[in-house]
Amino acid sequence: MEGRPSFSIIIPTYRRPQQLGTCLESVAQLQYPRDRFEVLVVSDGTEMPPEDIVRAFRDKLAVTLLTQTHGGPAAARNTGAARARGTVLAFIDDDCAPSANWVEALAKRVAMFPDCAIGGHTVNALPDNLCSTASQMLVDYLYSYFNANNDGVFFASNNICVPADLFHSIGGFDPSFPTAAAEDREFCDRWVRRGYRLIYAPEAVVYHAHFLTLLTFWRQHFRYARGAVHLRQRQRVRSRGRAGIRPPSFYVNLLRYPFAHAPIGRAVRASLLLAVSQAATIAGFSWEKIVRHLTSGRQTSS
Fold it and tell me: pTM of the full predicted structure?
């Protein structure tokens, strides 16, 4: 037991008290020695921090509530990391529920790859919600595309763990990303460029319960695209040139992806929603470009 790594589980939260309670209930069921992990809940500028919810779990967990002015999930994760005592930082979102062996599975991978970031497998917890299903299918497709080999390129921030010392050495998450939109992709890009590895651990399962309507599905992918513009700007600076553009086959295979993972009727609807996600991406990308151009023009004229 002494040889097991110590974990700090960091949960950023913003205006989702019910989801946070469900998340903490699952964390309280983790099959890992209680003296080898702590939980840091970071309230991201919520008007009423979830003190009552966190207090209800203090007899089950070593849990601390931190607060900050509203700065987005990237800044909230950094706030948690700054107070963490564990040698490994494990990040999960407030609308997620880890499986009972989540930390144990991560710990085994950490033992094999101590200087790597470990990304687990995220499962849609709302299978009857087609928008939520399609959104997770998109993430699954990106994982299969970017992480086809043993070395990964991208893991979502709702199921990833990182050695604490290396996290701090590269500067943590970029807080200039104000919303949950590409800040995890930027972190992974910077991690890999520093020469570190990303290792996929499909046995480390987290269940994601993010309810979506067609409108919120559109808004989510519109927001992701705006974050992607910010990401590409960072990548161009690092590469001293143009960031890579995906080939047409990437998008064709994306639309085909549901047919290998769902019955035909459901696959057709999911594929249509993935097409909608790409339309939202084009719209969000264009909007952010226009906003940046207008902002730059005003700054130049002043």
Answer: 0.92
- Domain limits, the chain: 7-212
pLDDT value at position 299? 58
3-state secondary structure the chain: CCCCCCEEEEEEECCCHHHHHHHHHHHCCCCCCHHHEEEEEEEECCCCCCHHHHHCCCCCCCEEEEEECCCCHHHHHHHHHHHCCCCEEEECCCCEEECCCHHHHHHHHHHHCCCCEEEEEEEECCCCCHHHHHHHHHHHHHHHHHCCCCECCCCCCCCEEEEHHHHHHCCCCCCCCCCCCCHHHHHHHHHHHCCCCEEEEEEEEEEECCCCCHHHHHHHHHHHHHHHHHHHHHHHHHHCCCCCCCCHHHHHHHHHHHHHCCCHHHHHHHHHHHHHHHHHHHHHHHHHHHHHHHHHHHHHHC
Residue 140 has pLDDT above 90, yes or no: yes
CATH topology assigned to domain 7-212 = Spore Coat Polysaccharide Biosynthesis Protein SpsA; Chain A (3.90.550)
